Amino acid sequence: MNRTLWVVQWLLAALFLWGGGLKLVMPIEAMTEQIAYPGLFLRFIGVVEVLGALGLILPGLTHIRPGLTPLAAAGLVIVMIGATVVTAMAMGPVIALIPFVTGLLAAIVAIGRWRFVPLRARTGGRERLQTSRP
Hints:
Blueprint: H1 2-25, H2 28-34, H3 39-62, H4 68-91, H5 97-116
Helix pairs in contact: 1-3, 1-5, 2-3, 3-4, 4-5
């Protein structure tokens, strides 16, 4: 289960880094021609996607704040709910299956890392000294 979650996390991270990165580097005029939303809103979504992608991978690799991974996945689920609704309205329900499945995979990561196979924080090999009080 841990390996499966890691594979899904890496695939989602690649997808969101690519999509979010494009929203950050494309000229606003080019983006607003394709999508009828304000340019700054699309930039914001790009930032959220890139941060979510980093949140899927970095806490597990560094063992620093591993509880951020399920939170990042849950945030990406929210983004994909919006993407599914917008895509369904603009292009129809068949094309909306793509963001729906992406959101479903992010939900699986969120639940899997929260409940079934949580990532562990680095302890640094230090053990806490327990003092006994008389």
